[in-house]
Amino acid sequence: METCTIRIDGREVEVETGKTLLQVFLQQELEHPHICYQPDLGPIQTCDTCMCEVDGRILRACATQVEPGMNIERLSARAQAAQTEAMNRILENHMLYCTVCDNNNGDCRVHNTAELLQIEHQTYEYKPKPYEVDLSHPFYRYDPDQCILCGQCVEACQDLQVNETLSIDWERDRPRVVWDGDVAINESSCVSCGHCVTVCPCNALMEKSMLGEAGFMSGISQDLLLPMIDIVKEVEPGYSGIFAVSEVESALRDTRTKKTKTVCTFCGVGCTFDVWTKGRKILKVQPTPDAPVNGISTCVKGKFGWDFINSEERLTTPLIRKGDEFVEATWEEAFDLIGRRLGEIKNQHGADALGFISSSKVTNEENFLMQKLARAVIGTNNVDNCSRYCQSPATDGLMRTVGLGGDAGSIHDLATAGLVIIVGANPAEAHPVFATRIKRAQKLHGQKLIVADLRKNEMAERANLFIRPKQGTDAIWLSAVAKYIVDQGWQDREFLAAKVNGFEEFCASLAPYDLATASEITGLSQEQMIRIAEMIRDADGTCIAWAMGVTQNCGGSETSAVISDLLLITGNYGRPGAGAYPLRGHNNVQGACDFGTLPVWMPGYQFWSDEPVREKFAKAWGTELPSTRGKDNIQMVEAMHNGTLRGMYLMGEDMAWVDANANHVQAALEKLEFFVVQDLFLTRTAQYADVILPACPSLEKEGTFTNTERRIQRLYQVMKPLGDSRPDWQIIQGVANALGANWNYEHPSEIMDEVASLAPIFAGVSYERLEGFKSLLWPVTADGTDTPLLYTDGFAKPDGKAVLAPLNYVAPLTATEEYDLLLNNGRLLEHFHEGNLTNKSTGIQHKVPDTFLEVSPELAAERGIEDGATVRLESAYGAVRLRVLITDRVRGKELYLPMNSVSDETAVNLLTGAGHDLRTNTPAYKQTYVRMQVLIPRGQSPLPRVNSRFGKRNPQQGVEVHRKWKRSDYRPLDEATQELQKQLLNQELSEV
Amino acid sequence: MAKPIRIVRKHEPTPEERQQQSMHELAQSLTENQAAVQQSLQLVRELHDSGALELVTALLQSREQVAKIAVSQLQKPAMTNTINNVMEVAGAIGQLNTDATKKVMSGVVNGMERAADVLEKDEKIGIFELVKALRDPAVNRALSLAIGFLKGFGEKI
């Protein structure tokens, strides 16, 4: 870190070079005015309040870099005059009524800056704007009258979220923020990510859930409020008096508004943020630059999707099946029954007659207890989680080649790579915040993007190269690219020689797949594959991110291994900005696997049958470990059908809808003799239960989640459990003790301590080290050193070298005459998976009320259907009936059915069920073929007009402040902008 | 062997049960805060006996109406004017030098006492006494002060 010396206000200070003055001021904890600076956005220079005098010139502190020997006066007469003038211009656009304003929570930048500058009276009278308040959107509102035109919202939307919806129309007489080409917010391309509301420094953009709720007086009706505000203005007190009153009111709010850090419960990105609550009411989700993964970023679910917490449908007491209905019971009754019945089945039929399904949504500690219950208390290895349906093939491919089943680096590597290749994944909708970093890197920093997918999703539209191979043939083009690279001599010889085994065997396996053959099989052109090879060769670091498009296939693990192989031969491991990124879907599916709810892996990826491992756990738990290999989810379903699995304890998983072949699975669940389901809601799966246990969501308990980066983060309890529901770890403990286990954990930290003592990769993990926004990426050594970047010191293999897996191509299932259409399936942005959580949100339901079938224009024309047509789809496993949306996101005979449905009519898994991944048993969801029968050829579109997919984006280069400076009514406060203004106006004149 | 079912037989607490539960929680609160509760009762008793309780209750019941009346009164120009004037005067007082004020005020007090004496004695003065008065150092000082005040006053208005 290079430093230099400068003078600030007459004092000599040593500072880092390469920083801006404002960054230095903030670091030194000097109070300096600024409104439009946001660390995650960089300086945008729209507010002008940060002016200071530097070596005699007036400059913006936010945009001026430190230089040795600089003499900075922040409080000189000239500096203060400029700052005050800038503040006054802002107050011309913003009425100060802080005491009754919902944003008066101590963090309002307009309030704080006006106070800091000791503004007593404003020099320009406030002028309302000639626009209506926009209340159209379900989650937030824009009040143009309060908007100071700082443009942070625009900058965030254009260059951070990169949805490119917002802009400021600088050329109008009275500029304002517009959505798309100036439409109502609810009719725009806005994806409700929340960035704009989060960064707004005042109350111009506010979450609707805050309005009238945040302050003690902010809920007063308008006919009382406006006269009150008028009085205050007539009386013309100095602002210092008013600020004092609003400070008091703000302090009062602190006694009532609770701000608690949590980790998002939805996807595998692992966003963290503060949740503001008033009792059980969620006021808002407020992300902060301190969050290690997401900073101020969120998506619609994390920012706005929490209605389910207080939903009336939440289970609040245990339920026991009696005849044809569920009857409310006490916890004692429930535990007694469970203990008795599970014990009976174990005694009569053996421990392996019982199965345990864990949840990817519950905490690490809860997952650990679930597998401990199965192994130490019952005595079976029949425990699994939903990674089976999802990234198990990726874990397999990575463990084979590089030794650890997790992302090679973190989000920062994705953001700084020279090239990102996305295969069979849709991060713009499934991992939105990850996608923002990739989009931003591409837009601002020249990152290149290749997307390989059947569907033209958002990242495909933005890609530098978008390829659409035939379904299930990714292993071929990846191998052909690898072969081409080796044939051209572009492989990283040093890296291979020093760190990788198996090169010859690998190359031999590639021999049949020259470009022509690959082109034949995949449907790609040779040029495309050559281009990919060239882009990898030219990039400074390549990250390959993949998801279900790769894994949910018969060759999923083999393809994942080939991806790893390609990265290995090009030296793209163990260095920043490179590596393998299988994107984990759930908030804690990584943790579920890490903490051992897998049939053959103990916590910390210790193999179940390794003698030393067995001894260690046996000693710690005081009991022998089971000696039969455990069954995975799919094998358990088969065992239910043939009667060998008679009892099951399932937690947080809607198996009836998310497993492939729903009919088959539901029939299996019916056959269970005893079935315990633990969940927040009475899901379809719970309908088969004998006992239903009400559990708590993330906001009602303590624990940790591990995201796709291997990052462990703490969640804190925001509110008490609802009704008689309990945190999952307490429930599991209750069940264990009903079976005589005698557990007495009092807090999840004790569970984590136990894990740290048993699993070397978690040796240094403790709650102290995870306090606040701190996090640890495993492996973590005993002294607390974590591993943000894997393999810098060699691979996780016995000799420290990676192993190239030879290509073993598993050809995909194909269409038949009977089932001629490919049914692609997966997630969508607004809902999480089958929607049990998000379908409780009125706002989200408003945007996506139902699922729908995407049909290509070509196929629609062929079959004579239009938007809103009702069709019946049938596969060998079942049928659904639903409405059609015609879109060119899909092409030819490829359909797409999002999985957000818990209905017998439309759930996609009624159709899936063919095939499994060779090595891990993951169902081949993506190789589903159906036939389509038209029932009604047209109708109402299943996706309402208010959905963002119908909006038209408006890309800009951020807030484009130069257009503000060009305005004739803008008088620059500093020489540099004055110069620039002259240039811009001359330019315009010369263009005329 | 369990068919999927969805009906939940909820136990809706009867009004009696609900009341019982409420009473139980209330009793618990009261006993936990016995001393504070008893003191509050004493306070309420006093308010009740003095009639203040009834008055305050009525005010709160009609709070929105009262607030509107108060606000509309405050909005009248005479009212905002008064507030403004009071604030100006208060502001001005804040600017006075405390020591000077002290001196002036002690002078006023003394002067008043002397005046009271004179009133009692009911003295008469003629031209001669007037001229003598001008030479009196105390009177002279008072007059200089008065002229100084007039000058300063004239400068600002």
Automatic annotation (TrEMBL), chain A:
Residues 257-313 form the 4Fe-4S Mo/W bis-MGD-type domain. Keywords: 2Fe-2S, 4Fe-4S, Iron, Iron-sulfur, Metal-binding, Molybdenum, Oxidoreductase, Repeat. It holds the Pfam family Molybdopterin. Residues 78-118 form the 4Fe-4S His(Cys)3-ligated-type domain. GO terms for biological process: formate metabolic process; respiratory electron transport chain. Residues 2-78 form the 2Fe-2S ferredoxin-type domain. Its cofactor is Mo-bis(molybdopterin guanine dinucleotide); [4Fe-4S] cluster; [2Fe-2S] cluster. One of its GO terms (cellular component) is membrane. In the C-terminal section; belongs to the prokaryotic molybdopterin-containing oxidoreductase family. The lineage of its organism: Bacteria, Bacillati, Bacillota, Bacilli, Bacillales. This is Oxidoreductase. Residues 138-157, 181-210 form the 4Fe-4S ferredoxin-type domain. NCBIfam families: Fdh-alpha.
